Fold:
Amino acid sequence: MAARTTAEERSGTFLQVAIALQTLAIFFQATTAGLLLSSSHGEVLHSVGARVMYGASMLYVLAAILAWRPGGGTPRPIVYASGFLVLASVQVVLGIKHEASLHVPLGVLMFGLSVLALGQALSTRLLKRSAARS
Structure:
């Protein structure tokens, strides 16, 4: 039983790290979007950040799949992560097309959803820890 609990904690931690990385990557994108307007290096940083953010979204999907155990647990995190990957794909397409009127609000929405997912993952972990101690 202890080995299973340790494995569950590791997969949960990996999921939280993946969500945190995604949230940080999106925040970096917001920062470089501002630099895009004021600096010649802004475009390069924003382009690199877009690749990192997309990779972080794929990592989130992988972490959600690994955290889900067939026959146990809910697949809801996989649905959330997959939906986020779809939003990231749309965001990339809008960025390439220079559709700022849709690209910017979608970026804000993605950041908010990522912070929400991170908060939910962290609160779930805290609830499990407090229940285990009781």
